[in-house]
């Protein structure tokens, strides 16, 4: 579960909710999970028992101040309630106002701030959002001033957002308490800001880059003195000691704006969201949703309200007001602006160090010397010249490389260059391949390597026919006729020198290995799979215009023993051979095991008809696993070819055999130092097996169909190290999961794969590749070895300085991938990219890409959990993010008050995206997330590209009934927050693995009829996974949109229909990542406050 603390458990993918015992819910991709026991936590939106109700000793509070109001204050507009409860840091959204909001004495009661007229602000550049609709709003929270050393922030009584004793620990684990510092749940953070545009600073060479700034009131006016002793239990802010910890005195009536009249007794505060935004009203607990009655033993939310079931107590204060979420950086707005600004023009790669459009923008690429961003994306396109500067900024220098990325139809695939027997041209010293950055000298007879500066003599480096004269600019006259001299990406045909044993490879083979144990037969999996394979084998990948695929196929079934099948074309019926000695695996036949599909069509069809019948009455429940992979690898070795194994497996391999596993699922290890063992493989046997597979070019794709724990962490080792994929279908049922499984299988079998691959990344002098992330194996420090690599997999590479870089020459990367194509052809694919270098930090921050940064940070963290406690990994992420932003604030931003949170324009979404990573199931699981689900997601994210991690961590939420039905375009997304939901609308939510259709309770009857073919909301089936095919515009549009979203993703997203206020709604709300998660993960607003506090602590 995406959470940042261990508070009330919530249902994850695959588990029912604690409150709805026995209800089967979906796991990742919509699979039902097992039933969870009921828990003792309060209902959703209600208070959680167990919060600490008394202040901790040693935490000081600031007494009321009676000093005069400071001179520099801002004023609230007429008609708007001023925010007056806090005082740590206000957010300024836009340029500083010439008139500051007035600060009132600290002893002034909450909410009783008089209002002043609006003062106009000067017009500034506004790249995002509308002009400001209100002036700055101020907030006061005692004890948060910064003066020299930072005093510990105060944890408000009973509502702590984290360990009150430490600022440094960002992810402490107090029982049922929040994670972050000292911001009360649902309250305005210690930064306030006006609604409207984000302030920017004009970009300049050595001046600060554009920035979004948020102002804190802590900077203006006199500092409040702090108390010197610990607070007594029950003592309030500046008030007398009281005997009851819950006692808070009632505030006086709230001051009203001029011109308004009070016509009745004071009531609950007004909703804070815009009146134009449909949705629920703000509830007293800070959440949005239908009002619920108070919980027993908790005070009423506002004076005069009934407190059913609770003891009468003194009146309670007005609830705090929330910071307007529209006033902080919006991912949706940034995405929309980038689409509008950069989606219409092609992205031309001829300029060095050019930052590409966001991954969420549809754009065309014109290759003019640098690789397309579809192949390589960098965290920054301007690298610091020195290692000291890089260490100071803490911005990771990394590239996410997708060597075989699929291109849209409008873009041409890389050209194939054939230099004949002489092979590709390379530098004699560093072995870099010829590219557009190589400099020809001496009339074209020699060239200087752009990576190592070596002068290569043409007589020894390239054949005489490759010689060409230079023009007046020093370029070869044939430069634009040769892909390797003019394009960023291209392929060379490799010579026999690049092949194993100096022998050209044979075409690869596919082996289908099918579990025929009791579970697989009973679920209908075996029959479904055999039926599908009959037709699927006609669609094996093929080269270019080839009439049929060169790939050969073989079949194995297994339970405790293995069955090999001879499907030679000359046979009338297939023959089965059984190998029961699984401890010493061998392949009992060579001729007839791997065959051409078209030649053996009749025998293969006969076999696929017979398999379900042969094992229909099996009672064998135990399975083996490692010997199955061993058998497939031995078969490929005997055939002297590379290939892929497709394994269909259902249970934990407990039969006596190599690789036998035991059930080690232990939830007691969560949040302990031993939690990392849950992500580590049980035995080293699988790493050894994976190493042998890589050496043979044997890639493994694993399809799992578990009904209980199967130890994904161990079973996925071989697919992970061989460049394969893992697919998981928990509690598989043919009627519910058939479409998803078959769609994934078809795509997996048909996609183009490079076999027996080796990848190396070369860099120009000054930087070098030091770390690699992804699904691959490395036997040395430079070569990435992949038994198979498809168009969905990425390899992420981190770079470090080993010398000073030159600002004029920049930095160069070259990724070279040597692989065997589906037709058995040995090829080299080359991608080149030139980056700028800078001596000013401002230039670094101006050319960063947040989406790629988050991709790298997520992979870094997900690998970190293998060796470190999860809490340590989370703290490391938060610290690094704070250091990045603090360095910008210190070195690049214009001088301003310490209370301002200033974010670089390119990184203003870093806090919201990082919070999503911190709340993800791997780093902060809910109580019901299974160990297998965490291991599955961990290995999945490891090889995701930037577009996939973007939507995985921040899902897309699309309202369906607001855009015109006749519109062919995708409806504009809204922010992933519950307050954006209107109960009169229908929404689609997708994150690349899951697809939800949320239906509001007040949706018009006509819409319900058009989509579901039922007459009312109550008749809609919750959990429905297929929409009825109806002949009306709305039904066609929604089904078309769902198909379109699925086509954009590498895995099939199963649809789940969720009704408002239904049991499944909690699962849906898990993906509303801007909100505080049900298990205590911070909301976007609260995390932004926490980051501000961390930054100020670093700066002080």
Produce a short descriptive summary.
The protein is of the alpha/beta class. It comes from Neomonachus schauinslandi (Hawaiian monk seal).
Helix content: 10-25%
Q: What's the main sheet like?
A: 8 strands, mixed
What structural class is derived from the secondary structure elements?
alpha/beta
Estimated share of beta-strand residues: 5-15%
By DSSP, the count of extended strands is: 33
What are the segments in which pLDDT stays under 50 over at least 5 consecutive residues? 1-208, 215-312
Overall, the morphology is globular
How confident is the prediction overall: mean pLDDT? 77
Helix count from the secondary structure assignment: 22
What is the radius of gyration computed over CA atoms, rounded to a whole number of angstroms? 31 Å
Whole-Å distance between the termini?
35 Å
Secondary structure elements and pairings:
Elements: E1 73-74, E2 146-147, E3 149-150, E4 211-214, H1 331-342, E5 347-348, E6 365-366, E7 376-378, E8 382-384, H2 387-393, E9 398-401, E10 416-417, E11 439-441, E12 446-448, E13 455-457, H3 458-461, H4 483-486, E14 489-493, E15 509-515, H5 518-522, H6 525-536, E16 552-558, E17 562-566, E18 575-579, E19 595-596, H7 601-614, H8 626-639, E20 643-649, H9 685-696, E21 698-704, H10 712-715, H11 717-721, E22 726-728, H12 734-750, E23 753-763, E24 767-774, E25 784-790, E26 795-801, E27 811-820, E28 826-838, H13 841-846, H14 850-864, H15 870-891, E29 901-904, H16 910-918, H17 931-942, H18 946-953, E30 956-959, E31 986-990, E32 994-999, H19 1005-1012, H20 1033-1048, E33 1054-1059, H21 1065-1069, H22 1084-1099
Parallel strand pairs: 5-6, 8-28, 10-14, 15-16, 15-20, 20-21, 21-22, 32-33
Antiparallel strand pairs: 2-3, 4-29, 7-9, 9-26, 11-12, 12-13, 14-28, 16-17, 16-19, 17-18, 23-25, 23-27, 24-26, 27-28, 30-31, 31-32
Family: Belongs to the SEC23/SEC24 family. SEC24 subfamily.
Region (Disordered): 1-108, 178-329
Biased composition (Polar residues): 23-37, 90-101, 184-195
